[in-house]
Amino acid sequence: MKIALFGGTFDPVHLGHLAVARAAAEKFGLGRVYFTPADLPPHKQKRKLTDFQHRFAMLALATADDPRFVPSLLDAHTGHPNYSINTVRRLKSTLKKTDKLYFLIGIDAFKDISTWRQPEELLSEVEFIVVSRPGHSLADVGRALPESLRPTDLMLRAMRRQQAEGTIELTGATLHLLGAVREKVSSTQIRAAAANRSMKQLSRYVPSLVAEYIKKENLYLGGSAEKDGAREDKMLSFQDARHHGHAGRSHKNG
Ligand code: ATP
Ligand code: MG
Q1: Which of 39, 50, 130, 133 to mutate to test the pocket of ligand 1 (most atoms within 8 A of CB)?
Q2: Which of 77, 121, 221, 243 lies deepest, with the highest CB count within 10 Å?
């Protein structure tokens, strides 16, 4: 089976992510796309991420109606920063010989690939599907490569003249370009819509079940420092309801 690993913070998952997965699944005949939220993204985030459990729950809701799309716990609670090279190797070790793994990524994220851990090794472990995103050019894909893999200027120019589709085969990397996705949406924008309590905007950018979930769990209300009320709700949903009944938080440790 052809399988893609699709990583991100997914805070929250949105219609852009789903469009990326759908376009790749159709073009490459993928039988599975693992949406893999990072528990601890290696690059420092400017803001505190939403609890992993919430991000995972939203992914489960968003992927429920497509049998190819599966939310993955590969990068959950490993206790270490989630370096893609490790995730890919861990996933590959579970696959059959007949399976083929791709790494699915948007061009904005791919532009940072050189700053990732062991980018050359990662690029040689797995073929990449790099997908277009409004505001970024797929023509930058060659320039983004780590220096040791970067094509010559002449090749770069030739690549840029090509249409933003097709496959680039280099020694040490295979990049499939997919230029069909034009979803102008980001999680950043959705967090802002939720903070403004704009349900109308929210439901334009996320599946309706995800919009409902954001609303009932009071997510993204107060920017990075959520209001105490929202925090309390989260405790009830995930821990306190189970361990302490509904009487509120216990002060016992453990
Ligand atoms: P944020 O605004 O918090 O950075 P985001 O919308 O960029 O969120 P991420 O979780 O950072 O979402 O992205 C996960 C992966 O999905 C990345 O590879 C990213 O490039 C890709 N991606 C996200 N949104 C789009 C989009 N609208 N079009 C194409 N690719 C996208
Ligand atoms: Mg992003």
Answers
A1: 133
A2: 221
Are 233 and 174 within one domain?
no
- Cβ–ligand 1 distance for 181 under 6 Å, the answer yes
Which of 178, 209, 230 marks a domain boundary? 178
The overall average pLDDT reported for the chain is 88
| Residue % of the chain over a pLDDT of 90 | 74
Distances (CA, A) of 141 to 111, 184, 191: 7, 20, 28
> Which domain covers residue 198, as residue numbers?
187-244
Residue at a domain's end among 178, 205, 232: 178
Q: Examine the domain organization and report whether 128 and 204 are in the same domain.
A: no
Say if 48 falls within a structural domain. Answer: yes
Q: Which residues contact 100 (CB under 8 A, 6 or more apart)?
A: 1, 2, 3, 127
- Rounded Cα distance, 222 and 170, in Å: 46
**pLDDT tens digits, one per residue of 93-135:** 999 999 999 999 999 999 999 999 999 999 999 999 999 999 9
pLDDT at residue 34 is higher than 80: yes
> With 90 as the cut, is the pLDDT of residue 251 above it?
no
pLDDT at 231 over 70: no
**Tokens encoding 211:** 């919009």
Q: Is the CB of 37 under 6 A from ligand 1?
A: no
The answer on 91 and 10 residing in a single domain is yes
Q: Is 8 in the pocket of ligand 1 (CB under 6 A)?
A: yes
Confidence of residue 45 (pLDDT cuts 50, 70, 90): confident
DSSP 8-state symbol, 245: T
Residue 145 CA to residue 35 CA, distance in Å, equals 24
The number of domains in the chain is 2
Output the pLDDT for position 88: 98
